[in-house]
Structure formats: C-alpha cells, structure tokens
C-alpha cells in the first residue's frame, strides 16, 4: 500500500495534538515497512519552519530528519507546482501541492483535514489516520 502523508499527520506527533497516537501508529507502519510512505518536499520545509520557531537551527534540522525518517520524499516538481496553481477545487495552495504530490505516487492520501479535499475525493482515497487504521491495519 502506497500512502501519502499530509504534513499535519507528522505535526500531530511532533506537537502531540489530538489524535497523535493514531498518527504515530501510521508513521511506525511506514518505518516497519508495512506501508510505503510518501511526503512532499514541501512537508520537510513546513516541519523545519514550524520547529524553528521554538528550537535552534541545528535542533530543528535534527527534529525534521527524525520526523521524515523512513519516508520517500516526492520532489516539488514544476509540473506539480503548475497543477497546484491551476487547481480551482482546493482553496489553499499548500493543500493543492499536497494533493497533486499524492496523486503522483499514492493510492491513499492521509490527512487531518478531509474537508479541504472533498472536491477531489473521487481521484484518490482520502482518509484520516483513524479511518486508515480501521480499514487497513491487519
């Protein structure tokens, strides 16, 4: 199973937001090679930027490295950027980049913000961590 992780799934764990344990279980499935996990190159920058608000540069880089360990990183290509900029069904550019990155590589898009992707749910399966675990965990 190839699953694309929205940045908010990794941030759940880093800041211990509601539902972080489900997100951690999914991340562990990637690290245990039960799921082929993908993230956008944009997610790497998002994690670093958000952690750099409270940590030193070196600490932020280390946290980011640990957070993305085991994931395949989808390059932020010109094609993905153009598709995201032309995307009219998703309001937020970051969400559009995540969606078009996911479509390149995955069967499932994992996010906390399913409502942001309602208009495109016929193109890729969109699930919360809890829904994925309920449906696919063996």
Briefly characterize the structure.
With 138 residues, the protein is an alpha/beta fold.
For CATH, the homologous superfamily is named as: 5'-nuclease
The residue-averaged pLDDT reads 96
User: What's the CATH class label?
Assistant: Alpha Beta
Q: Strand arrangement, largest sheet?
A: 3-2-1-4-5
- Strand % is 5-15%
**pLDDT under 50 segments (min length 5)?**
none
Under CATH, the topology can be stated as Rossmann fold
C-alpha-based Rg, rounded: 14 Å
Report helical residue fraction. Answer: 40-55%
**Count of structural domains:** 1
Assign the CATH architecture. Answer: 3-Layer(aba) Sandwich
Give me the strand/helix succession. Answer: EHHEHHEHHEEH
> How many angstroms does the end-to-end distance come to?
12 Å
Shape from CA axes?
A: globular
Classification by helices and strands: alpha/beta
Number of strands: 5
- Report the total helices: 7
Task: Give an overview in words.
The chain is α/β, with parallel strands linked by helices. The protein has a single domain (2-136), classed as Rossmann fold (3-Layer(aba) Sandwich), CATH 3.40.50.1010. The protein has seven helices and five strands; from the N terminus they run βααβααβααββα. It has helices spanning 7-15, 20-31, 41-52, 57-68, 78-86, 93-105, 129-136; strands at 2-5, 36-40, 72-74, 108-110, 125-127. A five-stranded parallel sheet has the order 3-2-1-4-5, sandwiched between helices. Helix 1 (7-15) crosses helix 2. The model has no long low-confidence stretch (mean pLDDT 96).
């Amino acid at each position: 199973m190839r699953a694309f992780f929205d940045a908010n799934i990794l941030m759940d764990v880093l800041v211990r937001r509601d539902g972080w344990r489900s997100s951690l279980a999914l991340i562990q499935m990637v690290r245990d090679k039960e799921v082929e996990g993908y993230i956008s190159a944009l997610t790497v920058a998002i994690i670093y930027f958000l952690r750099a608000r409270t940590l030193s540069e070196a600490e932020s880089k280390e946290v980011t490295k640990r957070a993305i360990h085991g994931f395949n990183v989808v390059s932020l290509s010109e094609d993905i950027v153009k598709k995201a900029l032309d995307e009219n069904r998703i309001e937020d550019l970051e969400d559009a980049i995540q969606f078009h990155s996911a479509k390149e590589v995955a069967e499932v898009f994992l996010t906390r913000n399913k409502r942001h992707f309602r208009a495109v749910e016929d193109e890729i399966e969109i699930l919360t961590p809890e829904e994925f675990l309920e449906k696919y965990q063996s």
